[in-house]
Amino acid sequence: MSVVTNTTTIGAIEAPSRRNTELAMLAFAVAIPIFAYLNVGLAINGKVPTGMLGYGLGIGLLAGIAHLVVRKFAPYADPLLLPLATLLNGLGLVVIWRLDQSPKLIRLSKLAYGAFSPDAPKQLLYSAIGIALFLAVLILLKDHRILQRYTYISMAVALILLILPAFFPAVNGAKIWISLGPFTIQPGEFAKIIIAIFFSGYLMVKRDALALASRRFMGLYLPRGRDLGPILAVWAMSILILVFETDLGTSLLFFGVFIVMLYVATERTSWIVFGLLMSAAGAVGVATFEPHVQGRVNAWLDPFGCYKTDKTGACQQIGDALLSFGSGGTLGTGLGQGHSDLIGFAANSDFVLSTVGEEFGLAGTMAFLLLYGLIVERGVRTALAARDPFGKLLAIGLSGAFAIQVFVVAGGVMGLIPLTGMTLPFVAYGGSSVLANWVLIGILIRISDTARRPAPAPAPSPDAEMTQVVRP
């Protein structure tokens, strides 16, 4: 008996989309901030806060819409990025609302502005706009490789964004804001994304030339002289930003992202060493003649010894922040029961991590840093999975920018490095920061969707013939 069968090409195995996993994680990411909101209300007033229902519905609705759009337009994206960002954003809203209840901050606001305006509702509005931008990135950006076309345009836009604050008045000693009527914008938050796009396109073309070494010195491969041009130009630009705008945070972020991406593109350790040496030399040089930077360095070296001589307030802020961390202990004082509002106007922006350290304790602070570390890890995993060099560099650049910003903010508040004045992503009060970081998460999700999407099955050959299999 003979049986004739047809053999056809087997298509690619369908990879799991993990959208149900994302939905389950989003449920936890929404429930935890709602529980924290309830905890703050019970600790401060002894009753359930009146706005709890609206807050929970608002966060749940925004997270649900974001999930549906990801499920539709990026079905194979990383399942953890959206829940992690939602959880951090939600907890940040809770901490800001907790500080809005502080009698000291209410009194300071009335003395300074004549009235008190709570920041939590405004932060919730910024979060909604940020998620709208996140959705726009996923819907409009069909392929991240389209951004490669705008390599040099992005460089021009980034330079404009970095230079513009120099023409506006300084705020708290630093020129990092653009004032447009009642609105203020911090362009450095958006510039970090645009700079990563430029560096990705530039290094993808120039990485072979930058990887060449002319000689070896003390175990390091020294780059050729003509290849030092890009790093010298970026170093000079970061120093100019630091000098004219006294913005230590943006200059560190700008230069650090370039060095990280340069190392990833060339795999030369010498670029890291050169970058660290040049960064240290530039910071020391500027600190010797720039009073604002010098004041922050002095506050970092001896925060408790310069209370009377410091005119910028940095010493008192850092000293109070360190006392907040110390009083929090291992498990914290509990939400709503700390005194980090003594820091003053920067309690919900620059020094919001001190509230976390006091009321969540060392364990809670480590949990927050772990959430940030998971976002960076998922970004690096996306870079490793990306199939195109531009996507790899862009994912690592965005992840590096996010990691550097968290490090310089946390390091400044904890006294590890001088204070930079940047905001903690998703947690600190600030519209520019929330908007920019939601866009950053959107681009990472788009890259991860492309990287994890299964390859299409090969088209059947038109010359394929029927194969006869004879079975006895």
From TrEMBL:
Do the record's keywords include Membrane?
Answer: yes
The listed locations are:
Membrane
Q: Which GO terms describe its molecular function?
A: lipid-linked peptidoglycan transporter activity
Q: Which GO terms describe its biological process?
A: cell division; regulation of cell shape
Membrane association type? Multi-pass membrane protein
A Pfam family it matches: FTSW_RODA_SPOVE
Q: Does the keyword Membrane apply?
A: yes
Membrane-traversing stretches: 23-44, 50-69, 81-99, 124-141, 150-168, 188-205, 226-244, 250-266, 271-289, 360-380, 392-414, 426-445
The record's listing under InterPro entries reads:
FtsW/RodA (IPR001182)
Q: Where is this region: Disordered?
A: 452-472
The record's keywords, sorted A to Z, are:
Cell shape, Membrane, Transmembrane, Transmembrane helix
Please tell me one Gene Ontology term that the record gives under cellular component: plasma membrane
Chief localization: membrane
Q: What's the protein called, per UniProt?
A: FtsW/RodA/SpoVE family cell cycle protein
